[in-house]
Amino acid sequence: MFGLGTTNSLTMDKPHPDSLLDTGVQGVIGKPLDRIDGPLKVTGTATYAAEYQFANMAYGVLVGTKISAGKVVSIDVDAVKSIPGVIDVVTDFDQFIRVSAQGGATDAPTQGVKDIAFFGQIVAIVLAESFEVARDAAARLPIEYDEAEGQYDFAAHRDETRTPPDDATPAHFKQGDVDKAMAEAAVTIDSTYVTPSQNSAAMEPHASTAVWEEDGSLSLYGAYQMPTSDAQQLAKSLGLSEKKVRIIARYIGGGFGSKLGIAPESVAAAIAAKQLGRPVKAVMSRPQVFEATVRRSNTEQHVRLAADADGKLLAIGHETLTSNQPTEDYFEPAGIGTHLLYGGENRLITHEVVDVNFVLSGSMRAPGEAVGMLALEGAMDELAEKLEMDPIELRKRNDPKIDPEKDVPYSSRNLTRALDEGAKKFGWDKRQKAGTRREGEWLIGMGVASAVRGNMMMESSAKVEIHPDGSATVSSAMTDIGTGSYTILAQIASEILGIPVENITMSLGDTNDPPAAGSGGSWGAASSGTAVYLACEMLRGKLAKAAGVDEDGLTLKDGNAIGDNRSTPIGELVGKGFEATGHIKPGKQEKETSQAGFGAHFAEVAVNVITGETRVRRMLGSFAAGRVLNAKTARSQCLGGMTFGIGAALTEDLIHDTRTGKLVNHDLAEYHVPANADIPQMDVHFVDERDIHANPIHAKGIGELGISGAGAAVANAVYNATGIRVREFPITLDKLLDQLPAV
Amino acid sequence: MKTFTYEKPATPEAAVKDIDTSGAKFIAGGTNLLDLMKLQVETPDKLVDISRLDLAKIEEREDGGLTIGALVPNSDLAADRRVVAKYEVLSRALLAGASGQLRNKASTGGNLLQRTRCYYFYDTAAACNKREPGSGCSAIGGFNRILAVLGTSEHCIATHPSDMAVAMRALDATIVTLKADGDRRRISIHDFYRLPGDTPQIENALEAGELITHIELPAPVKGKQEYRKVRDRASYAFALVSVAAIVDVQDGVIASASLAFGGLGPMPWRNPAVEAALVGKAPSDAVFEAAATALLADAKGYGSNDFKIPLARRTLIATLRNVTGA
């Protein structure tokens, strides 16, 4: 490894049982350190995409279509150019992107905005000397349309489906014969669940500030989760070489999937900046974020379960319908978790798509599992009820030893432990029969659901430098979207190099730094964490050599290299400085093991017997996600996921007017994410686990595990409280009202 | 937001003189108007800022009632010890509305004048007779979950979003105004709001340039007070149904009852027939049922808001049980 340049590469072909995080003695790994970017954020000094200021910058406000299908005939630019302060109106019918890019894509998304695929499609950008003038002119910009019929009613078109091309999840999977098993089994469940479209509702709206440099390259300050592939998308969209596009995304105010790929404001800002010869800032309004970026698709999910009298699953059918625009291949992989969560010989998992003229369907936190498990785990609760079996016992009886479809072992799997340890902490033994516990006007119930989220690793790299003063710098095109990446990557470097966290400078979110997969799919910690690990591993070797000690005999702690009864400040060993780049790629382990995080959600809810209002009283998530790198940020990730789960179960519902395709509730007043008062006492428990097949740091993804199954636990608790099974999410009071006891 | 001019008069008398064009508007807390201006739903060419006028006091009158300055912030009104002690329903209604930050900004007078939260009113690409008279009503036949089931017309089914105004209606408040010509008026809250009919753009009795300066509450009345708000999340959501109730039971008989409702109609709703069904009767479920029937006799659902009718019935009955102890 040494003397072979400055890159330490690893392809994850073999298990990696030894980890420098176990032998390091700095003692920071796993510690609940505060986020190192926290003070910057609470003092308003962390710079977000919309906050960069440049001399001579023009303010851009995007203009969306007021119809959902048809063509743009003309845009009357002159009508607004006379407004004082307006500089120009820029449009490019061919080059503007119609939809956001999907996460990780390296091509441009669908381009061309003359054809209108959905309401609010961005077709122009108004540039002015102030934001206010630009907004006024944008609102007044006359656009002539040739309107066409569109498909705005999912239910009406639900029989007109198409089979999308396979994605990471196959569109169709079949094993054995579910129909036959259903016909023969002792106990069966056959239910259809419906979930609505959702929006990530990240606090920071999509924003881009585009600056063309003198050498003809583009610097785009954007709110993006995956700068490396985002820069590729942007370059392709603009017809530039990849090298000519730099994306800077130092801080991102939440993404949850909505900022995986570039959104229309980036290309519009870049084209406008070029045309004006001035930097251009374009920030989406909240309605534009809802109307013109990305939504989680609505779903209709037909779940069938067949079990023997002891609750052993014989068959699982999970047939799903989702929606997207006709030109788009992406489908919400609602059956994804069903592939590996439970045993059962006969399996059928399908995804079909209904064409609609709605905003693009794409990734939102735990695409697939988040909504798929509302259905699967609801059906499991139904099965437990039918079997008169404790729902935890039913899940444990179907916890397979090996992957039921791939016939390979799990890299690590502790579903049963997560269920058992969680049940004990939650007080599950106090759960009563459905519809029997009441406190005044409130019906009280408890629910449980399993959690599963596939574990992913993505090719990533990071550079670590040790400076003569003993400090270090970690740099990568990785991002921190509010998850704690800055902090955990510093902790990894600190643990291995023995350099205190406060002496490590983090540089993330810049494509000028080594490429990385960014933040998405909960792969950030494992992928970029391993890249940092590998760079530090190499630096450790260099330090050993410089100190003249054996690597095995080297201890790095508190800025000192200790070995052979000598302690030398690390800075004195590095001459003008050491640097190394770590590079990780997924390998054979991905195929040879089945990798996922597992867990269990427990919820206690109160349902008002008069009004049907449901309020969550307490919640516990119990998770087995490999090594926990920072107990505080990991817990916060889980709490965030569980909060999303409460929203999915009870409040979030992105509604399209079926007459026009228009979003009815395109802001935070009427698209109801949970408010503080909706979030009760929540607790997170981590099952002690290491995953040696996943990566050298032995961690699995955590950001999405917290949502996967969370809403189902809430819904199952509503059933336990009321005896009413609502299969159409969210469980708003009107869906309970007519089945509640008469007043 | 359309460019506008801005005046900041020193007195109410100067303020009403500054409202000299049809495109001028008063602004106090701005918690509703600014949002609507950003969306170009409201496009005033002039704003007259009344937020610093000397109208932010709460004073007791000799008759035992309270006179509330129009600029008293919602949070101050909710926390006022006299309001908490004697007009509990008002304090509770205020605290059930909006968020802490909004309540700090929002004024008492402005709260009465909130525009509807109808999705289509906010959407300038949709037809809305309230926003653009004669353009039609997108809510009828559309998604209307939060909209009205009482007092609607074929032109508009908007709801009035205020919680505070519902309590004010149960409390028989009076709205005191100053007109452009210097005249003062006292308008009962029962005469203040307008049904949509075929002019849904006219929402209240205020004349052009007329400024609300005070709200008077009569002397406290006997009875148990409650404000119950039913909503889609625990906070920061508009009422699906709300009930403001002040009910006095003497010797086992309902001696007086005052009931107003939010989330059901284009104005804070009050119907004397509901109270007539209660007063003089011994509290019982049958009596409460009769009151609910009186309330909902003319209720009409529009699809996605049909559930409000049974919800209102259930909520009223439960509220009456609480306040009567039955």
Automatic annotation (TrEMBL), chain A:
GO molecular function: iron ion binding; oxidoreductase activity
Domain of life (superkingdom): Bacteria
SUPFAM superfamilies: CO dehydrogenase molybdoprotein N-domain-like, Molybdenum cofactor-binding domain
Aldehyde oxidase/xanthine dehydrogenase a/b hammerhead domain boundaries: 43-149
UniProt name for this protein: Xanthine dehydrogenase YagR molybdenum-binding subunit
Species of origin: Sphingomonas faeni
Lineage: Bacteria, Pseudomonadati, Pseudomonadota, Alphaproteobacteria, Sphingomonadales
UniProtKB/TrEMBL annotation, chain B:
Keywords tagged on the record: FAD, Flavoprotein
Gene3D superfamilies per UniProt: 3.30.465.10, CO dehydrogenase flavoprotein, C-terminal domain, Uridine Diphospho-n-acetylenolpyruvylglucosamine Reductase, domain 2
SUPFAM superfamilies in alphabetical order: CO dehydrogenase flavoprotein C-terminal domain-like, FAD-binding/transporter-associated domain-like
SMART domains: CO_deh_flav_C
Domain FAD-binding PCMH-type, first and last residues per copy: 1-222
Tagged with keyword Flavoprotein: yes
Any one Gene Ontology molecular-function term assigned to this protein's record: oxidoreductase activity
UniProt key word Transmembrane helix: no
PROSITE patterns associated with the record: FAD_PCMH
InterPro entries on file: CO_DH_flav_C, CO_DH_flav_C_dom_sf, Diverse_Substr_Oxidored, FAD-bd_PCMH, FAD-bd_PCMH-like_sf, FAD-bd_PCMH_sub1, FAD-bd_PCMH_sub2, Mopterin_DH_FAD-bd
Protein name: Xanthine dehydrogenase YagS FAD-binding subunit
Protein species of origin: Sphingomonas faeni
